[in-house]
């Protein structure tokens, strides 16, 4: 999963010169003047899409499923008629477009891997769709080779940004509200069309602070700037927000008012949740998005899983053979974007893992929910006895009392893992040796007897070029025939 690029800032006008009472004015101006103007300039329908999504989130499940089925049938027929890759694939499997009526029929079409997209990128483009109208993007390649893809303005800017805006509304954040982002200002993901981003940012009062520049000497200033901006929301990778939270706790300084906390792009571990709750006094909202599919799912205020934007996307959780798994079972996450007609990606394997939550959400929305913990399938640890440990099952909450600011597992060999930790200042009193022993005991239990653990205390763990913190770097090739210990730690979910 990845924190998507920010092509659609919140059109934040900020305080328009009057502090009190300005929020409403700012929201009205953003929603009814600035955003519609930007829609007209770039030929998109973001605001219309947002209005639709604000209504459909309350529809009964059957009505959403009917809409999904209708959009899926249209997309599959289009893919068969216009996309050489799918025509060939479906002909080879004797699958006619008429045989795909509902999401339950999707397993008739094979899973699409990132390797498939790299290899067949030309054949995945729809014939007759003007290339000049497509947005060219690429994944960050934080855990593998970067992957190029194309997207339509409708899919990306109209529907994708609308999904993002609706997701933020669930956290009580609306267009026009001041937002503080712990993220780099760069144009991630897309290599062109940055002009509109820059134009939109002319209106924006969104504040940025690059986590790449965080240090003990700079964090005080970061906290002060957050406090001064009085944001309605603090956004960023969970790891970046936790660095700030940890600093506040260690320094024993008052935490700034941050409104809602919205994390994305990384797993949000239970210990991190607890830290944010303790320091900022608010329960974070976890958002799941990717470069390729933009916003996919987000927590509502019940904080009991992430609601999938099912009007726009079909999300499947499947086993290694692409067969659907029942709620509660962890598997690979596949995504089909129902509005992508430039380079349709059907049953696209995100390389993330999750499970569907059981039952209905107390918020009243019937949109399906993914469990809160979503990790990367390629970040599993394989052990000599054939177990496969997903980071989903790792409960790192025990590191919080030890004052650990950040950690990263590096598996160099099948039977050896080094845990790199960045201690906060509150961790130093117990001594390095004692700290290492305590960290080691936390991870040894999880990894089991057949994996030796060493702990290395480091000053800093460098993020990926996209600014993401990796919790696991595995230098071990997965065994061809691995057993499946994907047991899910529901207590941590
Ligand atoms: Zn809900």
Structure description:
Residues 3-20, 187-192 and 480-493 have low confidence and may be disordered. This protein is α/β, with parallel strands linked by helices. Strands 4-3-5-6-7-8-9-13 form an eight-stranded mixed sheet, sandwiched between helices. It has helices spanning 22-42, 46-56, 61-82, 84-92, 114-119, 153-170, 194-203, 216-229, 238-251, 270-280, 432-447, and strands at 134-138, 148-152, 179-182, 207-208, 233-236, 260-264, 285-290, 294-299, 306-308, 313-318, 331-337, 348-354, 369-370, 375-376, 381-382, 388-389, 404-413, 416-423, 452-457, 472-474. The two termini are 17 Å apart. Helix 2 crosses helix 6 (153-170) and helix 9 (238-251) crosses helix 10. The longest helix has 22 residues, at 61-82. The chain is built from eleven helices and 20 strands. The radius of gyration is 22 Å and the shape is globular. The protein binds zinc ion (ZN).
List keywords for this structure.
disordered C terminus, single chain, alpha/beta, 493 residues, binds zinc ion
SS-derived structural category: alpha/beta
| Count of β-strands | 20
Helicity range: 25-40%
N-to-C span: 17 Å
Determine the strand fraction and express it as a percent band: 15-25%
Low-confidence stretches: 3-20, 187-192, 480-493
How would you describe the oligomerization state of the chains in this entry? single chain
Calculate the mean pLDDT score and round it: 84
Listed once per kind, the bound small molecules are: zinc ion
State the major sheet.
8 strands, mixed
- Number of DSSP helices? 11
Q: Radius of gyration, Cα only, in angstroms? A: 22 Å
Side-by-side strand order of the widest sheet: 4-3-5-6-7-8-9-13
Shape: globular
């Amino acid at each position: 999963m990845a924190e998507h690029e920010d092509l659609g800032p919140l059109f934040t006008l900020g305080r328009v010169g009057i502090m009190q009472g300005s929020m409403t004015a700012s929201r009205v101006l953003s929603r009814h003047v600035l955003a519609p103007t930007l829609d007209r300039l770039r030929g998109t329908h973001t605001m219309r899409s947002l209005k639709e999504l604000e209504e459909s989130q309350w529809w009964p499940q059957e009505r959403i499923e009917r809409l999904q089925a209708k959009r899926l049938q249209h997309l599959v027929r289009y893919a068969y008629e216009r996309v050489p890759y799918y025509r060939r694939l479906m002909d080879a499997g004797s699958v006619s477009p008429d045989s795909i009526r509902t999401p339950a029929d999707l397993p008739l079409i094979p899973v699409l891997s990132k390797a498939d997209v790299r290899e067949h990128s030309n054949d995945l483009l729809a014939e007759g769709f003007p290339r000049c109208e497509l947005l060219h993007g690429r994944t960050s390649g934080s855990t593998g080779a970067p992957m190029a893809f194309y997207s339509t303005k409708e899919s990306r800017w109209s529907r994708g940004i609308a999904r993002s805006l609706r997701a933020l509304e669930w956290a009580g954040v609306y267009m026009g509200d001041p937002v503080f982002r712990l993220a780099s200002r760069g144009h991630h993901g897309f290599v062109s069309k940055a002009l509109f981003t820059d134009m939109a940012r002319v209106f924006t009062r969104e504040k940025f602070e690059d986590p790449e520049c965080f240090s003990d000497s700079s964090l005080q200033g970061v906290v002060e700037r957050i406090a001064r901006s009085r944001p309605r929301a603090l956004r960023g990778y969970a790891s970046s927000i936790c660095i700030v939270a940890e600093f506040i706790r260690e320094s024993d300084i008052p935490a700034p008012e941050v409104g809602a906390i919205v994390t994305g792009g990384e797993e949000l571990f239970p210990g991190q949740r607890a830290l944010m709750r303790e320091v900022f006094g608010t329960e974070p909202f976890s958002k799941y998005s990717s470069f390729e599919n933009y916003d996919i799912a987000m927590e509502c205020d019940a904080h009991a899983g992430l609601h999938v934007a099912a009007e726009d996307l079909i999300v499947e959780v499947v086993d290694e053979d692409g067969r659907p798994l029942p709620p509660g079972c962890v598997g690979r996450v596949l995504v089909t974007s129902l509005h992508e007609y430039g380079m349709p990606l059907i049953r696209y394997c995100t390389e993330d893992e999750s499970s569907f939550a059981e039952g209905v959400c107390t918020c009243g929305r019937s949109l399906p929910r993914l469990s809160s913990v979503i990790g990367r399938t390629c970040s599993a640890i394989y052990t000599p006895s054939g177990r496969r440990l997903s980071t989903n099952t790792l409960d790192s909450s025990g590191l919080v009392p030890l004052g650990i600011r950040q950690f990263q597992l590096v598996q160099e060999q099948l039977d050896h893992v080094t845990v790199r930790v960045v201690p906060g200042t509150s961790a130093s009193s117990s001594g390095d040796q004692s700290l290492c022993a305590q960290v080691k005991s936390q991870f040894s239990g999880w990894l089991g007897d057949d994996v030796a653990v060493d702990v290395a205390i480091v000053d800093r763990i460098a993020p990926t070029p996209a600014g993401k913190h990796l919790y696991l770097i595995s230098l071990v090739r997965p065994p061809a025939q691995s057993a499946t210990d994907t047991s899910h730690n529901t207590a941590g979910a």
